[in-house]
Amino acid sequence: MPVIPAAWRTRLPAAAVALASGVAALAGSYAVVGGASTFVAAPVANLTNTLAPAALVTFAITVLGDLGSDLAYASGLAATAALLGVVVAVGRAAATWAERPLFAPAAVGVAAGVVAAALTGAADSAVGAAVGAAVVATVADFGAGTGTGAAASPPDGSRRALLSGVAALAVAAVGVGGRRAFAPAEPVPTRPVPEDVAARLDDAAAKSLDVEGLEPLVSDNFYQVDIANVDPEPSREDWSLRIHGAVDAETTYDFSDVEAMNHDHRFVSLRCVGESLNGRKLDTALWTGVPLMDLLDPVDLQGEYVMLRAADGFYEEFPVAALEDGFLAVGMNGQPLPRGHGAPARALIPGHWGEINVKWLTEIEILDEPATGYWEERGWHGTGPVNTVAKLWATNRLADGRIEVAGPAYAGTRGIRTVEVSTDGGDTWTEADLSDPLPGEDVWRQWVHRYEATDPHEVVVRAVDDTGTLQPEDEADAFPSGPSGWVSESIDPDSL
Ligand SMILES: Nc1nc2c(c(=O)[nH]1)N[C@H]1C(S)=C(S)[C@@H](COP(=O)(O)O)O[C@H]1N2
Ligand SMILES: [Mo]
User: Fold this and answer.
1) Distances in Å between the alpha carbon of 261 and those of 137, 254, 290, 328?
2) Ligand 2 ion: residues within 5 Å (CB)
3) Which residues line ligand 1 (CB under 6 A)?
4) Does the N-terminal or the C-terminal CB of the chain have fewer CB atoms within 10 Å?
């Protein structure tokens, strides 16, 4: 058996008590504010994301996918619990040093509360953290019947550690469980959909191909990609958009300025450069907002480049020309823009990879020289136009015995001209049927192909964009410039 040094043996239980109090502080904050940006773990978790080495982040995105984001958040939570544990230990040490052991739980609570307040700037979140930490400290001290703090002897120490662990679990169960049960994660404001929006959504529903398992033309589950584990939530009242840099007249708009302008509705698809070739980070919505040029014309742009900045600390740079057809979206599918998609306002830059469609937009800075965006600093090249892709998302056996394959196809502002399908591994090709186009310059279409087959075979699919260019066959991973190649799938008719 490995020998644990005596000094460690006495300190380990104290560290366990501190960590348990840290976990309880986390749970206490969550009980009060939930997944809001004032949750005590939010600033720490978001900072660890930003500081993580580029190679690790790329691995998490391209290999782990959603599990990667979950692990990132889990490590952010752990880092916050550890930080609060250290703070709590300092609070307890202060009580011990002042020879006031009975005050230790209060000192622990105050220490956790002060740090939570400093991290989040929110009193309610801080009180939750303070109460959580103090409860565990109280149980550990008085439950173990010692109250002698960090100097407790090993047997007492182990009992205290055990008690505090149980108490932390109880606080976590009550805090997180209670929150989940009584306050739904994010109440979705459902407003009546305006008639002109409803008519467009009906049109999209009617044009969606009737294929089992294929998402409709307006996505019912729009993907989300965030640098933050906990998204910001600037209110409409607090939000403003500052346009500055190489401009003649620096200007700041607030939300009522935007609301007073003429609104448009646009079908726009978004695709993430970090997705896999046949992945699901490609979706379409009907967005409501104002053309960016309505905001930018009075400002008189002088530079060649632009940096968009956001409330979560995200920033992306690209040539100013791409702003010309850009859009500031404040609504999505007839509802106010949801928090996860950038409320109250996000940029939509037609035909470009998702990453420059900056959410929670707060600043447009015009630059004379090129600069480097958040993802480009981490090695990605995702500020340009999207690659053309045809995806295979649905494979069905029809009642008449035929096989049906279908999916979306997208080529940004180049548009989709045709989609070709091969059912013999790429030797011969047939044109697929396409959904009727939705109005819009930057929107996907759906394709479907139905055929007869009895033997196992390989289906390959490829799109031709509306300039007549065939989707390139060369295979490339998502990193750094987006996935490339033709989607293919082995199909065994007997197993359908
Ligand atoms: N402020 C901000 N904007 C952002 C991001 C972000 O993390 N923060 N992610 C970008 C990326 S990588 C993509 S693919 C799109 C995704 O938009 P969605 O989450 O609405 O689907 O938003 C982009 N805009
Ligand atoms: Mo992305």
Assistant:
1) 56, 12, 7, 11
2) 225, 272, 354-355
3) 222-227, 270, 272, 310, 312, 314, 341, 354-355, 357-360
4) N
